[in-house]
Amino acid sequence: MEAMEMIDEIKFACATCGQHIVTAAEAAGVAVECPSCRETMTVPAARAIHDRSYGEGLRGSDALTESRENLEAVVSECERLKSVATHAQAELKTFQAERLGLKSELAQLRQRHSGLEEKAAALEAESARREGAAAAREAALTQDLAIARTRASAAETQISAKESDLENAHAALTAAEAQGRAIKRKSWRFRTRA
Q1: How far apart are CA 93 and CA 101, in angstroms?
Q2: pLDDT by residue (tens digit) across 37-59?
Q3: What is the enclosing helix (H) or strand (E) of 10?
Q4: How far apart, in whole angstroms, are the C-alpha atoms of residue 161 and residue 177?
Q5: Cα–Cα distance between 136 and 91 in angstroms, integer?
């Protein structure tokens, strides 16, 4: 069996925070304060350097420290993910509010579009009605103009005929006057001879 070589210092870990502590072998059994977490603990008894449980204890404290570090990393990651999730939820609420606003605006635009289409249809119908009325008025005016032209032509024909009758009457009157003068002359001559 190997000779147990005693060590002159004690290395141990805080049971609360895992802080590595080194103290003199004479401090075994003495109550000390952890420099990290301020927890009070008792320094364990000194053990041989070849004592397997001593190395396992150190390895266990290292594993505990690593586990704590891993746990802290996981907690930190959880906090980060929670913050990201909270931010994502806020963005989602904002997006939903914007979506509702856009839906409302789209409904209003559709309503306005429908109203404008109705107004456009009404204006188109009114324009067609006015065009029809204008076309009917134009046709009536064209017909009236044709009638007026026909009447004017007939009146011109009548005027020409009357002018011709008037000229004939004037010629007859002139002839009658001439005949009357001739008769007067003959009558005067006759009276003179008598």
Answers
A1: 12
A2: 999 999 988 654 444 444 444 45
A3: strand 9-13
A4: 24
A5: 66
SS3 168: helix
CA 48 remoteness from chain centre: 81
Rounded to whole angstroms, the Cα distance separating 119 from 122 reads 5
* Structure confidence at residue 63 (pLDDT): 65
Q: What is the pLDDT of residues 159-190, one digit of tens each?
A: 989 998 889 999 999 998 888 888 877 777 76
Closest to 14 (Cα-Cα) out of 36, 47, 46, 45: 36
Give the Cα-Cα-Cα angle 144, 148, 151 (nearest 5 degrees).
Answer: 140
* Single-letter residue type at 20: H
Distance in Å from the first CA to the final CA of the chain = 217
- Sign (positive/negative) of CA torsion 43, 45, 48, 50? negative
pLDDT tens digit string along 71-125? Answer: 777 777 888 888 888 889 999 999 899 999 999 999 999 999 989 999 999 999 9
Query: Is residue 16 a contact partner of residue 34, using CB atoms and an 8 Å limit?
Result: yes
Sign of the torsion formed by the C-alpha atoms of 91, 92, 97 and 101: positive
How far apart are alpha carbons 131 and 120 in whole angstroms?
16
β-partners of residue 12 are 21
